[in-house]
């Protein structure tokens, strides 16, 4: 990689560069870092940023095989001795890399080659879409550069950290330099809510169901797009898994990267909702949102897919408790995706074997709606994740259905859609 000197246009007054930024541009940190800094400066100028700021952590989405050009680019960086400057983790890959994997060997080999290149640059190959489950997760005010959409909305909303949805390669440049343009959700002014969603008409017991968060998230994505909504009207504090399901769905059906929730999320208390354009969320609205994923009781189902985003340890324990308590023996595959970190924690509690003995296939490193990560289902798929339901239909060309965990397990036992839970809108 040739080291080109800093072009004159990078001295534009709108973007204030630190001594470190200029040294990187001029090649003091090597040719790879110079190229990364040139990209960051160009993006900063395009976004109208006034400066670059330090980031504490990066989470990259490029850890999958997307073709020869991408591999050659990464090889060039490795050859130029590129190394990340801040702790950096990798998102889910295009295949499960473990030896006992349902992914084809060719897919595993291709994905492994990409992951090894990122690892050579100092990235931590956790291969999870849920970096907030790993140790040392960000806290209120932390500045990070994350690229996975559900992780971005979780970091911004639930943790109060700060990140834009950092596109591929910009995320890598941030990791190599430890810098990012100060724009978008890094700015106080861009974190203010732009619309209000009143949830007070929903029955109090609604918040006991994780699917409530999934459907609210789908609705937010459809109706709020890129807005920053603030929700109100919840009479209890929803659990973390409900909130992350809400955010993941909103970032899938729309482009929501931050939501506030009055009395729940850490920054919501700063804002007034009185003068914001508002919407009353109703049972009818959520019933309509759920309709495409309702299905017909008794229809054949080909697989159960859980864990999008990757299942938390709490969700894995809950699944194990249900499987052990009911002694369900599935007639169709149950795929559960999670991180190696959470899988290993479950293994330490001797629960992964309990799930395996009952026909549950725990997958790590990937997501079950990615290409050939699992054998292609030949019929409808039931999931407890709105994100999986939204993306699975397009990625795999299958009919997707939503259900509670109880629905999923009862359906697995019979091979036909069974509504065993008490969720009111399905």
Automatic annotation (TrEMBL):
It comes from the Bacteria. Keywords: Iron, Lyase. InterPro entries: PMDh-L-like_dom (IPR007506). The keyword Lyase applies. One of its GO terms (molecular function) is lyase activity. The keyword Amino-acid biosynthesis does not apply. Pfam families: AcnX. Residues 16-409 form the Phosphomevalonate dehydratase large subunit-like domain. This is DUF521 domain-containing protein. It comes from Pseudohalioglobus sediminis. The lineage of its organism: Bacteria, Pseudomonadati, Pseudomonadota, Gammaproteobacteria, Cellvibrionales.
């Amino acid at each position: 990689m040739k080291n080109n000197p800093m072009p004159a246009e990078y001295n534009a007054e709108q973007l204030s560069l630190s001594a470190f930024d200029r040294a990187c541009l001029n090649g003091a940190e090597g040719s790879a870092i110079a190229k990364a800094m040139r990209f960051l400066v160009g993006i900063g100028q395009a976004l109208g940023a006034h400066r670059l700021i330090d980031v504490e952590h990066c989470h990259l989405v490029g850890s999958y095989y997307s073709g020869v050009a991408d591999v050659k680019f990464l090889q060039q960086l490795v050859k130029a001795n590129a190394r990340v400057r801040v702790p950096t983790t990798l998102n889910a890959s295009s295949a499960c890399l473990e030896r006992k994997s349902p992914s084809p060997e060719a897919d595993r080999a291709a994905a492994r080659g990409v992951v090894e290149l990122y690892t050579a640059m100092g990235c931590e190959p956790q291969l999870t879409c849920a970096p907030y489950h790993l140790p040392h997760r960000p806290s209120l005010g932390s500045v990070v550069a994350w690229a996975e959409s559900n992780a971005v909305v979780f970091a911004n909303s639930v943790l109060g950290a700060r990140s834009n949805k950092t596109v591929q390669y910009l995320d890598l440049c941030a990791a190599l330099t430890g810098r990012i343009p100060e724009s978008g959700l890094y700015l106080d002014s861009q974190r203010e809510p732009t619309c209000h969603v009143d949830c007070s008409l929903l029955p109090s017991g609604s918040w006991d169901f994780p699917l409530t968060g999934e459907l609210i998230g789908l609705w937010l994505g459809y109706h709020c797009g890129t807005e920053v909504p603030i929700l109100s009207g919840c009479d209890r504090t929803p659990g973390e898994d409900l909130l992350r399901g809400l955010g993941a769905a909103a970032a899938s059906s729309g482009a929501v990267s931050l939501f506030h929730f009055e009395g729940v999320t850490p920054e919501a208390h700063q804002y007034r909702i009185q003068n914001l354009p508002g919407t009353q969320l109703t049972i009818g609205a959520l019933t309509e949102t759920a309709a495409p994923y309702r299905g017909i009781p008794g229809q054949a189902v080909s697989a159960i897919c859980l864990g999008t985003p990757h299942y938390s340890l709490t969700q894995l324990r809950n699944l194990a408790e249900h499987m052990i308590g009911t002694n369900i023996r599935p007639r169709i595959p149950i795929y559960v995706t999670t991180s190696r970190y959470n899988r290993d924690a479950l293994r330490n509690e001797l629960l992964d074997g309990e799930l395996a003995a009952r026909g549950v296939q725990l997958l790590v490193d990937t997501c079950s709606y990615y290409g050939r990560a699992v054998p292609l289902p030949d019929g409808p798929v039931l999931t407890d994740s709105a994100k999986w339901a939204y993306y699975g239909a397009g990625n795999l060309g299958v009919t997707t259905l939503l259900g509670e965990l109880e629905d999923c397990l009862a359906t697995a036992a019979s091979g036909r859609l069974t509504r065993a839970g008490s969720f009111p809108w399905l």
